[in-house]
Design brief:
about 210 residues, alpha/beta, 5 helices, 9 strands, about 35% helix
Length: about 210
């Protein structure tokens, strides 16, 4: 079945699997205080889909439970939100970000992004194991993960390279995300952590 990836277009199964991440989650950062940052995807078996009556149903309505458990993670920042909840004991922030062109985002989307970055940064500062996930584990999770890395001292270029080298070269294929990180990522990351009430929010482009 063809797979559509924002920034790459439609790929065949073979084309996608040749370049796709090999793991559900990949570690991006390990801090001296024990904080660890992971970036990942939502397994198909945990996705929630609409049935013919437009009701959310579990794709894996087979007694399955989430793989996001306390033996792996302390905190999940979930940017997809159509999935199983994390297991009991895992603090979960559900922030549905869009994978559209970033220039189309409205103010609320920018505030959501800042919240995701802050929650990630704050949990790492407390020495917690943090998973940032979206659906495919490429663009939205890449954006938040990169901003968290920038907040911890990475340059935008090094943050992007860290993600691509650790997870997949097709991460951040959404060119508008990459452009934002390279041109405004450092300013936004600092504001999200230090001055969340004074974010540099651009006007959306029609």
């Amino acid at each position: 079945m063809p797979i559509s990836i924002n920034g790459l277009g439609v790929l065949s199964d073979d084309e996608y699997h040749a370049v796709a991440p090999k793991n559900l989650y990949d570690e991006m950062l390990s801090l001296p205080n024990g904080g660890r940052l992971f970036m990942g995807e939502t397994p198909d078996a945990e996705c929630l889909w609409m049935n013919q009556t437009l009701r959310l149903v579990e794709a894996a309505d087979r007694g399955r439970s989430s793989l996001v458990t306390t033996d792996r993670f302390d905190v999940r920042v979930d940017l997809y939100c159509h999935n199983l909840e994390a297991a009991e004991g895992v603090m979960e922030y559900r922030i549905p970000l869009s994978d559209n062109e970033i220039a189309r985002w409205d103010k609320n989307a920018w505030l959501d992004l800042a919240d995701a970055v802050f929650f990630t940064f704050d949990a790492l500062a407390k020495g917690e194991r943090v998973l940032v996930n979206c659906q495919a584990g490429l663009n939205r999770s890449g954006l938040v993960t990169a901003l968290a890395l920038i907040a911890y001292g990475y340059s935008p270029e090094n943050a992007i390279e860290q993600i691509r080298s650790k997870r997949s070269r097709i991460c951040l294929a959404n060119g508008s995300f990459e452009h934002f990180l390279l041109t405004r990522g450092a300013v936004f990351a600092k504001a999200a952590i230090d001055h969340p009430d004074d974010l540099p929010i651009p006007e959306p482009t029609p």
